[in-house]
Amino acid sequence: MENLKVKKLPKATAKRLPLYLRYLKVLNESEIVRIKSKDFAQITQVPSATIRRDFSYLGELGRSGYGYDVPYLVEVFSRLLESNEEKRIALCGYGNLGKALVNNNFRRNENLSIVAVFDNNPEMIGKTVNGFFVHSMADLKQVIKDEGITVAISTVPSKYSKDAIDAIVDAGITAILNFAPNRVKVPKSVHMQYIDLTTELQTLIFFDSLQEKAASVKA
């Protein structure tokens, strides 16, 4: 690990790292100590050539003819993703989506945890809902400081998203997951990932449709 040299990762590769780690942990727990890219491709549904290219950005992780050492890969990807370090998360927007995220609260990774929720709904502020005390967005900066929060998730609707993101950035958070599709301008020091469920679903349906058409042509 000390000699691991990581090249600059493309965004597409970086987005696949958590997926790789999730399945590597499953393999490790099943006491599988090595795996080849073609077998890993079947598990992850990522082409083996893509896996080998992604892994090449992280240095010499495998050996030709042998494959990859699973425990070592778990260590490498855990270190890269800092999954062994606790990340305390603020959730802004406690509507239906926010409640669903809190209910799940990253059960697959015990080091990721939503510890505080915020909303602007006066009917919710100051009350405990689904086990969480609902803070006002006006108290965001102070609660983030008191709770040692370093990551934020925003499920605030698009028309209010910019105000929420501005408040999160002002509170000193530099890692934000935003469920509103509209792009918000943030400082270069802030890393923001967008999740647009509608676009993701449309993309899924598009590729599924292509696969069905290809299958019908072969038939």
Descriptive report:
It is a single chain. This protein has helices at residues 11-29, 37-44, 48-56, 70-81, 96-104, 140-147, 158-170, 197-218, and strands at residues 34-35, 62-63, 67-69, 87-92, 112-119, 128-129, 132-136, 151-154, 175-178, 191-194. It is an alpha/beta fold and 219 residues long. The termini are far apart. It contains eight helices and ten strands. Strand 6 (128-129) and strand 7 form a beta hairpin. A seven-stranded mixed beta sheet has the order 6-7-5-4-8-9-10, with helices on one face. Strands 1-3-2 form a three-stranded antiparallel beta sheet. The mean pLDDT is 86.
Characteristics:
219 residues, seven-stranded mixed beta sheet, alpha/beta, three-stranded antiparallel beta sheet, 8 helices
Tally the helices.
Answer: 8
Derived from helix and strand composition plus strand pairing, the structural class reads alpha/beta
Oligomer: single chain
Largest sheet: 7 strands, mixed
- How far apart lie the N and C ends? 50 Å
Element order, helices and strands? HEHHEEHEHEEEHEHEEH
Helix content: 40-55%
Let me know the average pLDDT: 86
Spatial arrangement of strands, main beta sheet: 6-7-5-4-8-9-10
Outline the low-pLDDT stretches.
none
Indicate the radius of gyration in whole angstroms. Answer: 20 Å
Inertia-based shape: globular
Beta content comes to 15-25%
What's the count of strands? 10
Would you kindly provide a brief summary of this structure?
The chain has 219 residues and is α/β, with parallel strands linked by helices. 46% of the residues lie in helices and 18% in strands. The protein has helices at 11-29, 37-44, 48-56, 70-81, 96-104, 140-147, 158-170, 197-218; strands at 34-35, 62-63, 67-69, 87-92, 112-119, 128-129, 132-136, 151-154, 175-178, 191-194.
